[in-house]
C-alpha cells in the first residue's frame, strides 16, 4: 500500500486510537487520502471530466442508430401521406363528435379507431391531437359538420317594474325550451340547454355584457334574448343602457366585445294607450337595446326587433317572434351560422341601395350581338306557339345526360297570329342568360337572382322600406298592396324595346323573337319564390326591420311582373299566372304594347298595365327605341285590345314622364290615346333618373326628371283634356313620395268616393268560380273606398309608417 501511494496516511489527526483515530483501518485511510487528493486537484479533475463527457456525447450521437421517441407518437405521418388522387388528405380519423370520455374509458377508446375498428393496439399517449377541420371557420363562424358537440345556451334577459314582463319572460323561456326540444341534437350534435331567465336588475353586467360568460368544460355558445318594457321614468333600463353604451365607447375594450355570441334579438313591451306611436315613445327602450346590442355584438341581430302591447296585440306579436326565433335557432344548431344576411350596423342606410331608382317598371338591357341576331331572325323562321310545348321538352337539358338536345329552333311567337309557318331555321338553342355570361354576372351584381335561364327576381327598395316601417310604394296607397308582401319578378329578362329611361345597365338581351331555351313554368315559379324568400330572410338583421312585417313578408301575396324585360314574351305566361293565382298571389302585369297577339291571348290578371311612353309615333320611336319596325301599329293594336277587354281586365295606362321627351305639347295626344283605349286607370309617374350609360348616351340627365309640381300640372291638364272629350275620368289618388298620380274612370267612383283599392279575396273567388277566361268585370272585385290620406291633395304617404330622409332621419309630416 505504502509503495503504491507514498503519501497514504497511517493515522487520522484528532482521533485517539480506539476511537478510530490512532490505528487507522485501510478503508478510513483510503478515504482520507481521496479527500486530500480531491481538495488539491478538484478543478483540473472537474474540467477534464466535463471534457471527457462531451467527447463521449458527440461520439454516441454520431454513431448511434436513430430511435423513435416513445413519448410522442408519430401522429403527423398519417397526415403527410399523399392521397391517391393527389389532393390533400383530410384525416381519415373522424373528428370527435362525442364529449370527452370519462377517465376509466380512455384506455378502451384509445385501442380502437373512431369508426369502431381495432387499431394496432399501441396505446396512444402524449398530447391529444385534434384532427379534421377546425370546428368554426374564422370568417363566418360556421360550424362544420362533424365537429365536437356544442351546447347552445339561450339567455332570456328581462326588466320589469310592475311584474308583467317577468312573468312573460318565464313563460316565454319555457315555451321556447319546449319548441327547441333537442331536435337539433339528433341531427348534428348541437344541443340546446334549457333557456335561462335573468333579471337585468340582478344580473352582473360585467359577467354578461363585457364579454360572453366564461364556461368550464364543454364548449357553450350563448344566444341572448331580451324582453324589455319601456319606462319614461328612471328604471333599471337606464343603467343597463348606460352600461351598454359605456362598454361600446370604452377605449380599453374592443368595440364589439360581444361578437362571440351566436346572436341576439329584442322584444319590446309598451303601452299604446299612453304612447301610441314609436315617435311618441312606444317601446323606445327596446329599440335602444336593439341598437346597442347590434354595435356590441358586431351586428349579430338574429331576428328583427319585435314590439307589442300586452293589452292589445302583445301575445300575438310575441308568438310570431318566438316562431321566427325557433327557425333561426334551429338553423344555428344545424349550421352554426345565422346564414346569409345583410348585417345590421345601426346605420340607417346600410341595407338600402338608396341610390337605386324605382324598381317597378319595365326596363331593358341591350346586348349588341343579340340585337343583331334578333333582327336577323325576326323576319325569318316562325313557329306556332302551340308547338312551343314540344320544343320546350326538347330544348330542356336532357335529364339523364345533362346535355342539351340539339334542337333547331327559331320562334317568333310575337307574330304567330299572322303567320302559320313552321320553323325551318337550324340555329342551336341557347340559354338566354347562361350562368357564365357577362349578363348573368351583371344582373347578379345588381342584386337579381337569376332563375333557370331567362327569369329573374329581386326585392325592390319599397319592399325593404316597408319591412322597416318607412313607407310602401304607391301601390299600397292606390290599390292596397303591401310592399313587404310583394314579389317583383319577370319570366323573361329579354325585351323588344330599348327605352331611354331604362335604368338597367344595357346588358340584357333584347330581341323580337324568342330564340332561347324555354324553362317550364313550375321551375320558374318555385325558383322565384325560393329566391324571393331568401332575399327577405337576408333582411333579418337589418336595423329597423319589424318582426311583425318580417313574419308577414314570409307569405307572398302580390306579384309585380314588371321587373325588367317583357313578361308576356315568355311563351307560358298563362300557366305561370295560373300558378300565382293558385296560391292566391295577385298579379300586376306590365307589358310594353309591342306584342298584341300575346296580349289578346292573356288570361285574367289582377291588373293589366300597358306602358304608354309617348303620344305619337315619332316620340315613341325616340323614347322607346323599339326593335319592331311596325312598332306604332303594334302599339295601336294593343290599345284596341285593351279597349275591347276593359270589362274583362282591370286595365291601366302607365305614363312615365320624361321632360324634353314626352311631356311638352303631348297632353292632347295622350288624351287621344286614352279615348282610344279607355283604360280603367291612368297612372302618371315622373321618370326616376339613374345615371346609367344607357340613359346618358340617350341624352338623359337630371334635367329630364320632372318636379312633382310639374307632374301635378300635367295631370290636371290631362284631366281637363279628357273631360273636354266627354270622358269620365278624374284624379283619384296621389303618392307624392314617388311622384305618382292616379287618374281613374268614374266606373270606380261610388257615391262620390273613389274606389281604387282592390278586393283581392273577391278576385280569387271569381277566378275560382269562373276560371282564368271567366266572364267577370273589374268592378266585381272593386275594393273599399280609397283611404282619405291617399286621395288627391293629401300626399298619399302611409300614415302607419315614418318618413325618413336619405340619412334615415325622420321627416316631419307637413
Ligand atoms: C311608469 C311607467 C312608464 C311607462 N312608460 C312607457 C313608455 O315610455 N313607452 C311605452 O311604450 N310604454 C311605457 N309604459 C308601459 C310599459 O312599458 C308596459 O306596460 C309594460 O308591459 C310594463 O311591464 P312591467 O309590468 O314588466 O313593468 C310605462 C309603464 C309605466 C308603469
Ligand atoms: S309593386 Fe311591388 S315590386 Fe313594385 S315597387 Fe311596389 S312593392 Fe316594389
TrEMBL record:
Q: Which PANTHER family match?
A: S-ADENOSYL-L-METHIONINE-DEPENDENT TRNA 4-DEMETHYLWYOSINE SYNTHASE (PTHR13930), S-ADENOSYL-L-METHIONINE-DEPENDENT TRNA 4-DEMETHYLWYOSINE SYNTHASE TYW1-RELATED (PTHR13930:SF0)
Question: Which residues does the UniProt record annotate as the domain Flavodoxin-like?
Answer: 154-326
Q: Provide a Gene Ontology MF annotation, just one.
A: tRNA-4-demethylwyosine synthase activity
- Bias regions of kind Basic and acidic residues — which residues? 91-112, 798-814
Pathway the protein takes part in: tRNA modification; wybutosine-tRNA(Phe) biosynthesis
Q: Which reaction does it catalyse?
A: N(1)-methylguanosine(37) in tRNA(Phe) + pyruvate + S-adenosyl-L-methionine = 4-demethylwyosine(37) in tRNA(Phe) + 5'-deoxyadenosine + L-methionine + CO2 + H2O
Q: Does the keyword Transmembrane helix apply?
A: no
Q: Return the similarity comment.
A: Belongs to the TYW1 family.
Q: What is its EC number?
A: 4.1.3.44
Cofactor dependence is on: [4Fe-4S] cluster
**Broad enzyme group:** lyase
Report residue spans for region: Disordered.
Answer: 1-21, 78-144, 334-359, 774-814
Name this polypeptide is given: S-adenosyl-L-methionine-dependent tRNA 4-demethylwyosine synthase
Can you name the source organism?
A: Canariomyces notabilis
Q: Mention one GO biological process in which this protein takes part, according to its record.
A: wybutosine biosynthetic process
Alphabetized UniProt keyword annotations: 4Fe-4S, Iron, Iron-sulfur, Lyase, Metal-binding, Nucleotide-binding, S-adenosyl-L-methionine, tRNA processing
Point to the regions of Acidic residues compositional bias. Answer: 349-359
**UniProt domain Radical SAM core: residue ranges:** 479-727
Q: Membrane-spanning regions, if any?
A: none
Amino acid at each position: 500500500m505504502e509503495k503504491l501511494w507514498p503519501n497514504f496516511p497511517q493515522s487520522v489527526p484528532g482521533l485517539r486510537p480506539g476511537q478510530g483515530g490512532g490505528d487507522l483501518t485501510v478503508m478510513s485511510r483510503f478515504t482520507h487520502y481521496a479527500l486530500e487528493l480531491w481538495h488539491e486537484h478538484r478543478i483540473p479533475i472537474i474540467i477534464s471530466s466535463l471534457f471527457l463527457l462531451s467527447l463521449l456525447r458527440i461520439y454516441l450521437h454520431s454513431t448511434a442508430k436513430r430511435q423513435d421517441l416513445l413519448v410522442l407518437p408519430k401522429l403527423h405521418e398519417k397526415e403527410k401521406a399523399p392521397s391517391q388522387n393527389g389532393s390533400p388528405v383530410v384525416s381519415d380519423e373522424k373528428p370527435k363528435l362525442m364529449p370527452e370520455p370519462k377517465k376509466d374509458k380512455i384506455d378502451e377508446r384509445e385501442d380502437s379507431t373512431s369508426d369502431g375498428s381495432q387499431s394496432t393496439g399501441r396505446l396512444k399517449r402524449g398530447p391529444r391531437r385534434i384532427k379534421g377541420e377546425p370546428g368554426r371557420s374564422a370568417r363566418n363562424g360556421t360550424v362544420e359538420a362533424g365537429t365536437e358537440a356544442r351546447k347552445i345556451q339561450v339567455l332570456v334577459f328581462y326588466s320589469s317594474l310592475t311584474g308583467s314582463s317577468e312573468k312573460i319572460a318565464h313563460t316565454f323561456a319555457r315555451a321556447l325550451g319546449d319548441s327547441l326540444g333537442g331536435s337539433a341534437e339528433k341531427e348534428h350534435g348541437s344541443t340546446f340547454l334549457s333557456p335561462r331567465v335573468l333579471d337585468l336588475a340582478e344580473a352582473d353586467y360585467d359577467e354578461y355584457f363585457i364579454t360572453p360568460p366564461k364556461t368550464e368544460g364543454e364548449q357553450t355558445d350563448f344566444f341572448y334574448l331580451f324582453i324589455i318594457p319601456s319606462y319614461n321614468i328612471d328604471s333599471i333600463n337606464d343603467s343597463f343602457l348606460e352600461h351598454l353604451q359605456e362598454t361600446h365607447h370604452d377605449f380599453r375594450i374592443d368595440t364589439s366585445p360581444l361578437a362571440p355570441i351566436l346572436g341576439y334579438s329584442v322584444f319590446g313591451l309598451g303601452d299604446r294607450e299612453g304612447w301610441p306611436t314609436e315617435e311618441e315613445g312606444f317601446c323606445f327602450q327596446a329599440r335602444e337595446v336593439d341598437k346597442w346590442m347590434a354595435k356590441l355584438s358586431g351586428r349579430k341581430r338574429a331576428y328583427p326587433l319585435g314590439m307589442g302591447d300586452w293589452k292589445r296585440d302583445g301575445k300575438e306579436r310575441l308568438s310570431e317572434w318566438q316562431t321566427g326565433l325557433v327557425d333561426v335557432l334551429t338553423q344555428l344548431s344545424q349550421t352554426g351560422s345565422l346564414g346569409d344576411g345583410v348585417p345590421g350596423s345601426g346605420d340607417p342606410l346600410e341595407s338600402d341601395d338608396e341610390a337605386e331608382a324605382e324598381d317597378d317598371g319595365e326596363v331593358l338591357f341591350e346586348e349588341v350581338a343579340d340585337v343583331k341576331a334578333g333582327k336577323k331572325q325576326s323576319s325569318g323562321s316562325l313557329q306556332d306557339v302551340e308547338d312551343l310545348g314540344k320544343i320546350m321538352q326538347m330544348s330542356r337539358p336532357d335529364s339523364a345526360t345533362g346535355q342539351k338536345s340539339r334542337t333547331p329552333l327559331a320562334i317568333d311567337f310575337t307574330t304567330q297570329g299572322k303567320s302559320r309557318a313552321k320553323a325551318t331555321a337550324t340555329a342551336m338553342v341557347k340559354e338566354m342568360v347562361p350562368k357564365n355570361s357577362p349578363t348573368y354576372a351583371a344582373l347578379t351584381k345588381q342584386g337579381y337572382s337569376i332563375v333557370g335561364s331567362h327569369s329573374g327576381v329581386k326585392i325592390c327598395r319599397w319592399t325593404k322600406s316597408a319591412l322597416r316601417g318607412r313607407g310602401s310604394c304607391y301601390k299600397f296607397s292606390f290599390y292596397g298592396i303591401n310592399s313587404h308582401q310583394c314579389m317583383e319578378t319577370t319570366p323573361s329578362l329579354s325585351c323588344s324595346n330599348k327605352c331611354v329611361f331604362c335604368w338597367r345597365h344595357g346588358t340584357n338581351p333584347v330581341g323580337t323573337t324568342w330564340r332561347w331555351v324555354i324553362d317550364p313554368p313550375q321551375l320558374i315559379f318555385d325558383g322565384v319564390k325560393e329566391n324571393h324568400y331568401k332575399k327577405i330572410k337576408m333582411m333579418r338583421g337589418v336595423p329597423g326591420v319589424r318582426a311583425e312585417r318580417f313574419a308577414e313578408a314570409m307569405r307572398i301575396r302580390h306579384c309585380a311582373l314588371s321587373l325588367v324585360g317583357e313578361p308576356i314574351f315568355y311563351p307560358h305566361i298563362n300557366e305561370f299566372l295560373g300558378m300565382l293565382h293558385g296560391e292566391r298571389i295577385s298579379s300586376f302585369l306590365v307589358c310594353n304594347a309591342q306584342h298584341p297577339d300575346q296580349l289578346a291571348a292573356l288570361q285574367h290578371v289582377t291588373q293589366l298595365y300597358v306602358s304608354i311612353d309617348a303620344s305619337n309615333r315619332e316620340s315613341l320611336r325616340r323614347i322607346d327605341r323599339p326593335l319592331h319596325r311596325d312598332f306604332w301599329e303594334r302599339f295601336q293594336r294593343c290599345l284596341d285590345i285593351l279597349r275591347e277587354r276593359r270589362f274583362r281586365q282591370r286595365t291601366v295606362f302607365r305614363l312615365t314622364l320624361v321632360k324634353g321627351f314626352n311631356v311638352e305639347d303631348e297632353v292632347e295626344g295622350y288624351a287621344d290615346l286614352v279615348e282610344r283605349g279607355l283604360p280603367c286607370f291612368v297612372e302618371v309617374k315622373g321618370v326616376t333618373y339613374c345615371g346609367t350609360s344607357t340613359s346618358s348616351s340617350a341624352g338623359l340627365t337630371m334635367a329630364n326628371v320632372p318636379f312633382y309640381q310639374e307632374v301635378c300640372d300635367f295631370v290636371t291638364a290631362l284631366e281637363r283634356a279628357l273631360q273636354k272629350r266627354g270622358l269620365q275620368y278624374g284624379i283619384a289618388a296621389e303618392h307624392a313620395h314617388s311622384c305618382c298620380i292616379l287618374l281613374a274612370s268614374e266606373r270606380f267612383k261610388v257615391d262620390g268616393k273613389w274606389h281604387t283599392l282592390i278586393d283581392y279575396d273577391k278576385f280569387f273567388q271569381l277566378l275560382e268560380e269562373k276560371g282564368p277566361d271567366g266572364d267577370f268585370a273589374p268592378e266585381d272585385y272593386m275594393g273599399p273606398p280609397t283611404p282619405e290620406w291617399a286621395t288627391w291633395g293629401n300626399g298619399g304617404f302611409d300614415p302607419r309608417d315614418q318618413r325618413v330622409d336619405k340619412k334615415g332621419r325622420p321627416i316631419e309630416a307637413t
